[in-house]
Design goal:
By secondary structure, this protein is mostly helical. The chain has a domain of 89 residues. It is built from two helices and three strands. A three-stranded antiparallel beta sheet has the order 1-2-3. The longest helix is centred in the last third of the chain and has 95 residues. It is rod-shaped and about 140 Å long. The termini are far apart.
């Protein structure tokens, strides 16, 4: 299916476009500059005129195409900017995740070392307590013997 029909007339060359002309401005029109939104609105008006089968001169269609190219370039630029921002955000998230993983690994290692140190310290304190208890019991036994000997005399 052809998008247009060209006819030669004595006055000029005219082109009648089919009514199936798509629009590309709906998706990102909120992000376009005022100038390009105005151009997009004008192009949309021309699209409606085309869809009602009005006949245009080739010059006007060329101007419409040039405006459409400008708007398309801006849309592409906006999409590229968004992709760059997304890529930067993804990289920041990756860096934070890597940092978090390193810190988390170090914390677990520290917890393991602290646990081993605590266990070792508990064992030493338990041993020291038993030795102190044994000394205390020995001293009490000695003191009792001395008291008994004093009483006996």
């Amino acid at each position: 299916m052809t998008d247009h029909m060209i006819t030669n007339t004595p006055e000029d060359i005219t082109v009648e476009l089919s009514s199936e002309v798509p629009t590309v401005f709906n998706v990102t029109s909120g992000k376009l500059t005022l100038k390009h939104r105005e151009q997009a609105a004008e192009i949309e008006l021309h699209r409606r005129e085309i869809s009602s089968r009005k006949i245009f001169l080739i010059d006007e269609i060329t101007r419409i195409n040039q405006r459409l190219d400008l708007v398309a370039e801006e849309v592409i630029g906006l999409l590229v900017q968004e992709l760059v921002c997304l890529a930067e955000a993804i990289e920041q998230v990756r860096q934070r995740a890597t940092r978090h993983e390193r810190v988390n690994t170090q914390l677990w290692a520290n917890i393991g070392q602290t646990e081993e140190e605590s266990f070792s310290q508990d064992t030493m304190l338990d041993k020291a307590l038993k030795e102190t208890q044994m000394k205390f019991e020995a001293e009490i036994a000695t003191a009792r013997k001395e008291l008994c000997m004093m009483d006996a005399q």
